[in-house]
Amino acid sequence: INPVHLRRFGYPEVERLAPKGWAKIFEIAIANSRPEPYGRNSNLAYKLMTFPLKRAEQMSLAGELPTDYEKRVDVLQELLRAGTRRANEEMMGIITPGQRRKRDVTAIVVLAAIAVTFGLIFRKVFKLFTPPAAEGFEQAKWQFRRYAWAYLLLVPAAATILIWKYVPLARGSIMAFQDYRLLRETSWVWVENFGDLLWDNFWWRSVWNALRYSFLVISMTFLPPIVLAILLQEVPRGRLLFRTVFYLPAVTTGLVTIILWKQFYEPNEYGVLNTLVLKIPAIAFLALGVVLLLIALAFVRRMLYHGMRLAAWLFALAGAAMLITCAGLAKPILLPTGSVTAERLVQSWPAGVFVAAVAAAIWAVTVPVRRLWRRGRTTAAGMLAIAAAAGLAGLAAGLLSDLPGATTSAWRALAEMAPRLLQR
User: Fold this and answer.
1) CA-to-CA distance for 206 and 203, rounded, in angstroms?
2) Are 384 and 364 in contact (CB under 8 A)?
3) Per-residue DSSP letters for 10-55?
4) Where is the protein localized (predicted)?
5) Dihedrals φ, ψ of 404, to 5°?
6) For labelling alongside 376, which of 14, 38, 245, 384 has CA 20 to 30 A away?
7) Is the pLDDT of residue 142 over 90?
8) What Å distances lie between residue 362 and 84, 99, 122, 368, CA to CA?
9) What residues form DSSP beta bridges with 187?
């Protein structure tokens, strides 16, 4: 986006994110550049211009281009003229009236043949599914009055199929006879689209590729199982052995999959997943948690910059959750069950509470109360109350316990955990 428009419509904070010199680049581009002509089928321009170049390259690699300069120029000019005729026909739609008449007649004949063929096929299908009339009995009709509730129950399903299947099909069939424009006026061209399609070499090439692919799929995936089934049924000797060998892969696949998944999640040190996890040291889990927390805080900063406070809080909570999860993976390594380190950490909780409370109180006091007051007196009063409560709780915990002894236990626990950071 042009930074000038961002400044004009009141987005200066977004304008600062634009690269340096971006506005100057826009000025130079607008002053000196010319837009490409855009019109009907203009998206084919570069594709059509590529064909003469590719043909010339192929002729050069195959040694088909003459060595004489004049003859080489004549050949290349003929390639360009052929490309121009093709572009005029496919991109611009420029053909002679005789060619247009020939295409329209061909399209009418082909559409009529398709309609007659489908009519005969549907007639045959209806005859196959219509029960024969019994002698002496009148054939039942729709009987709307008798089966009114049944027809009523079918209305939602029939309406859904009609709306989502047949209405788009009918609308697309109508568009096939139009020069459809999304924003401008649509005009009727009748069978011109079908005539152009029947005389398009790319379409016939696609039909040929589709037929080849269908033949290969049928011959390689459909016929071999049928032939093999017949052979297994008609084999004179060893029928049980051949059938067992044939069906064994289908039976053992599920069993092998179950065994693999069981080995992957085996709840011991021999499991594949546990083998990988047990080779990671404790410090790696903690480092991963810190990195994820820092990434989340970077998103928090960006969300706050754009005024998205709810998203910022969600990112902060997600970062804290990821840090706690990673620390939980390192906990069995750092604090084994029944270790002295865990007991010392339990003994040192008053010191931790006291330090956290003092830090919270200092943070709340150092935050400008004026800024909180602008957001609301309730917010400022609540923050001061939380800070005071946290400070008093921490002070009480420190006074009611042996704070020096708890601090000593905390330092001893940290010293014991330090060598375990590199353990696996």
Assistant:
1) 5
2) yes
3) T-HHHHTTSPTTHHHHHHHHHHH--PPP--TTGGGHHHHHHHHHHH
4) Cell membrane
5) -60, -40
6) 14
7) no
8) 80, 89, 86, 12
9) 179
| Residue (of 287, 315, 289) closest to 301 by Cα position | 315
Q: How far apart are the first and last CA of the chain?
A: 52
Residue 344 and residue 347: Cα distance in Å, rounded?
5
* Contact partners, residue 353, CB within 8 Å, separation at least 6: 393, 394, 397, 398
Q: CB atoms < 10 A from the CB of 317, how many?
A: 12
> In terms of Cα–Cα distance, which of 151, 181, 158 is closest to 41?
181
Phi, psi for residue 87 in degrees, rounded to 5:
-65, -40
Alpha helices for 265-308 (secondary structure H): 272-278, 282-305
Task: Report residue 62 as tokens.
Answer: 């195959």
* Pair of tokens at residue 75: 């050949």
> Which range has the worst mean pLDDT, 156-160, 288-292, 324-328, 379-383?
379-383
Are 403 and 354 within 8 A, CB to CB? yes
Identify which of 287, 289, 286, 263 has the alpha carbon closest to the alpha carbon of residue 276: 263
Residue 386 predicted with pLDDT over 70: no
- Rounded Cα–Cα distance for residues 117 and 113 (Å): 6
Are 323 and 292 a contacting pair, CB within 8 Å? yes
Residues 18-51: tens digit of each pLDDT: 888 888 888 888 888 877 767 777 778 888 889 9
CA distance 322 to 314: 12
* Contact by Cβ (8 Å): 413, 345: yes
- Enter the tokens of residue 235: 């084999």
What Å distances lie between residue 157 and 14, 153, 168, 409, CA to CA?
Answer: 50, 8, 16, 73
H helices within 218-281, ranges in order? 223-234, 239-264, 272-278
